[in-house]
Each structure stands twice: as C-alpha cells, then as structure tokens.
C-alpha cells in the first residue's frame, strides 16, 4: 500500500495577501497577519483516507521544538493548538484545501512550513511564511478600528516629517517604503538581532522598545549612526536622505551602521520598521523640545550682556524641533486607561535600563502627569513640559555673576505635529499630549507630575558660584502663566522681509507696554545662526537701544543683518541652520525684565515637477524637475536627489553651480511597476542651501 506523500503546496499568494493587506510587500514568500485565516492548497500522491495522518508544522527560529513553543504541529481534525486553528475547507480528489488561523497573540517573525504525512516530511520550496501584527483583527492588541487610520498608519509608504521652528514649520517629504525589496527582511534581521524571547515577540510593546534601541547604532551596531558634529565627510550628511529605503537596504546588505542620522532620520526609519511589522505608527514632531533637563523640568539658557546665547555653559538645551514616533496598541501591562498611542524614540539621547532606547510611553500618561508609568515617561514629559529660564552672565569684580532675566512656562513642547490621516496636511496633536495651557486639568496634571519628579529650586545649573541664594526646600512649580509684569511688558519678534539667502535679513522687535504712565525700556537684541539642536554656530549682530513709551503703546525696533555677515557661515556648514533672534527688555522704573527668543528658517525658491497626472503600469513616462535660482547668490555644488517608490530607485543628479537667474532642468524616464497613487520626491542640496524639497503624486492605472 503506497504511503501518503505530499507532491506540492500552493500558498495561494494573491488571494491571501489581498485579504491580509500584505499584497504590497515586494517579496517572494507569503506574508500574512496574525489572528486571521489564510489558505494553503496541499497536493497529494493519492486521495486522503480516514486513517491517514496529515499535519502542518510551523517552526520559528533556529531549532524549533514543541516544548519551547517554537514548533506548532496542526492536525485538521484537532482544531486548536496554542490558540492556532486549522480546518479542512474542502477535499477534491488528490487536493486538500486547508484554512489556518494563527493566534491573535502569536509571536511575529519568519515561520517555516513543513507538511508531515505519516513518517514523511515534505519541505516546500520557499516554505517561509512571514507573520505580522494585525491592526485589522479585533483580538490583536494593535487593533485599530478606523479603516482610514489603518490606511495611513500601516499602509501608507510615504509621508511628511515636520521640521523648522515653531515660528516657521515646514514639511519634509519622507519615503517610508515599508513594502520595498529587502525592507521586510531587514526588519526580520532586527527582530532576530534583538534576541527577544518568543513570548516577547508576541507583544508590540516589547518589540517597539527593542526597535527603538536597534534603529540607532549605539550599543548594538544598529541601523543608523547619529552625528551632530557638522562633519559628515565619512558618510552621508543627515540632510541628504529623502527616505528610509536606501538606509535599511544598505544596513541589511552590510550589517553595519549607516552613517549618518539626526532625529528625523531615526524617526523616519523607525516609522518604516514599525509599519512594516504591522504596528500602526506615525512620526511626531515637537517644536521647542527640552533635552537633558536631568528631570528637573527646567532648561537654563545663558546670555551674555549683548543678549547673545552662550553655548558653553548649558548642559541642557532646547531643540527647535525633535521628532519621535507614536505606535498604537493596548497596554496590557498597565492599569486601564493607557491604551492607544505610545511614544517611542530611537534618537540616542539618554540611556534607559542601560541602553539607548525610549518608550513605549503612553501619550495619555504624559497628558495626565502619570510619569511613574513605564517606559521613560518622565523623560518624555520633560521634553514637552519643561520651563525655560534665562540668565544674563555679567562680570562683577572679575567674577561671573548670574542674573535671571525671564522665565517662560509655556514655551516648551509647542505645535506637536503629525501628518493628517488621508490628507497631505499637518495635524496638530498637542491636545493629545497636553491639556490647554492654564486650564484646571493642566494644573492638576502638573501637580501630579511634580509629585513624582522633584525639581530643584531656581539656581543656575552651570557649575559656577551663583548670585541667587538657593531657596530652601522650595520645589513648587513656577506659576504656569506668562511672567506677569507690573507694566504688562510684552515682546514680539518677526521678520519684515522674506528671509532669502543672499539678501539682508530684515527683522523687527516690537516692545509693548499696557500700563498707563511714562516708561523707559532698555532693549538688547541679538541675531545668531544656530543648529536645530539649539547650538549656536555664529553671532551675526546685536542692537542696544533705550526707548520711551507713553501709556499703553508699542514700538517696533528694526534689526538688520547684511548678507556678508552670514553668507560665509551659511556656505561652510553641512547642516540646515536657523536664524535665532533673542530680545531682553528691562523697564527702568519698575525693574521688570522679560526675555523672548524666536527661531526662523530661510526661505527658498521652489522645485517644480512636470509629469502626467496618470500613467499606465509598465508604460514609460518622462518626469522633469525644474528649478530657477531666484536668489542673489550662486548655489554651488548642487545635487538633485529624486526617488519614486514603485516607479524608480533613488537617483542623484550632479548639477554643478547654478548662477542667479539660471534655470536647471533634469529629466528621468520612469517605469511604474505598481498600481495606485505613487509619489515622486525631489530634494535639492547645495553649499548654501540644504533643504529645498518637493513631491508630486501620479496615479498608476
């Protein structure tokens, strides 16, 4: 009697991947999501008989074993095993159609499928099945109810990362590319590298924490090496990336950290990894984010007598923006009420449990002030809630003395932003992280947070002797309001002309007073160039004026910087720099003091993209990139970087120098390989300008 043998296994890829929303993955193997049925068609050498034994064996890891839970043996007649189910859909002669439903909390990863019949084991060619998290499955902890949100946070492979400054936010297009070739394999490599146990691989919280550690190269040879030095000669400048695909492909090929990244690169790559694994994820940008506050919820900013910010004295800093990620899940490890978005951050800032990793921290815990909850909620809370205290350093009898010239309690954690669902616009999600400033809920949340964080009193944090006596045991938070002054003194900083490189920078400081009477105000203003991390790169100029205001009135004082003062610095730095204006006002009659700072970004001429609105699959079309240099300066060493997922691979055009008034035009022949709306992203980089980018969508039919 011939023993039962398997002659083939059909993974029914097109129907399974359509149902599992995995048909986008550019990979030969079957990709499915947990907790949802998929079908396999088994072909046999003869018809099945009642006495025949047939089982599907799913193994994960190096040496799968039943007792370790890494080998599952599923028999159609014995339905449930470890939460997995299998059933016979139909038998047709020598064919047997089986339906397999993995457990909604199965470990994610790469499984090998073997079919056992009696003593025979059949190993199908390419018998690898990738099992991912499933936001479509109600029993999966990453379940997301809204289809529009799943489309955005799991399936969208393009998006924006918001950068710039609170005064001028702009969107940087970013290609996440979670479906591109080798990206899923790179994520599986990271999962293996994380050494997470099978139990831990069931939990998106543990997985996201591990990925936040592995996306930076610190302490584990992870994906991206951070560099904020301004010198990127031995790698790619952080400004030169337009997506995660090149980075993850290169990492997967070399298994060595890719050089170099800054916060938006870490967030872009981590977003790709989480979406690729099936966890809903979004990039979150916070403007004026506090760093290294030693959890005392205060950032000290030191100014010299000309009102210029000093780098050397501050341990802590305010970054113009910082980007991290939110991932969506139920937190089964926490008390009720903390499900939903969780902040994770792969930018290496501080060690947590001995590694550079951060999160998942429930966004609701940040809002409610429950900063004792895991993971790293104190750190995230401080990033969006610290106070900013300004000190002027003056020489008194040859010694440095510190004078406090202002405290801002609402200046940190502004305009928290992410891309809107299904739309190409910025959505402000500050309300998810914080109650409205000055509201009763905000005060209660703050008191709650302060009961877990012991902030020090108001003493300058630099290591020098202070003129301020240390307040004894006074750890009360500063009153959460704008500093109330006797005169109602108020400062505003604006630009009065567009800030084009090569032109004079024309800005103004407006001094307002609301109280009746005659007032004399000493105004000090300074203009500097700084990195987005708050580090000053160059001093451009200062003003000092004494003005007289009568009653409730205001006066605008111009601050103008000639091109010669800044163009040399602008051409020599590798990063995008911002214009920082700081103003200190002191009212002589009442000794009221107020300090205000504003960061602004340069404005650039646009790149335009010319191409048809629609194209057909595998039919070539031409895409042209046009840029006219409307600035008064030559742009040197121009490079145009372009990428279109599903259309063409990342391409670089060397453009040389573009003189004022000149027009650059580059063309690329595109062959679309995937259906639907696809985006083309372009970025122009030169010595003078780092950040002109644009994107355009095309429908492939």
From TrEMBL:
Q: Which residues form the active site?
A: 263, 322, 345
Its EC number(s): 2.3.2.13
Entry note: cofactor = Binds 1 Ca(2+) ion per subunit.
Return one GO MF term: protein-glutamine gamma-glutamyltransferase activity
Instruction: Provide the alphabetized UniProt keywords.
Output: Acyltransferase, Calcium, Metal-binding, Transferase
The residues that the entry says bind Ca(2+) are 385, 387, 437, 442
Domain of life here?
A: Eukaryota
The yes or no answer to whether the keyword Calcium is present is yes
Residue intervals of the Transglutaminase-like domain: 255-348
Q: Which Pfam families match?
A: Transglut_C, Transglut_core, Transglut_N
User: EC top class, in one word?
Assistant: transferase
Name the coenzymes or cofactors required.
Answer: Ca(2+)
To which protein family does this belong? Belongs to the transglutaminase superfamily. Transglutaminase family.
Record-given protein name:
protein-glutamine gamma-glutamyltransferase
The protein's organism comes out as: Polioptila caerulea
Q: Which gene encodes it?
A: Tgm4
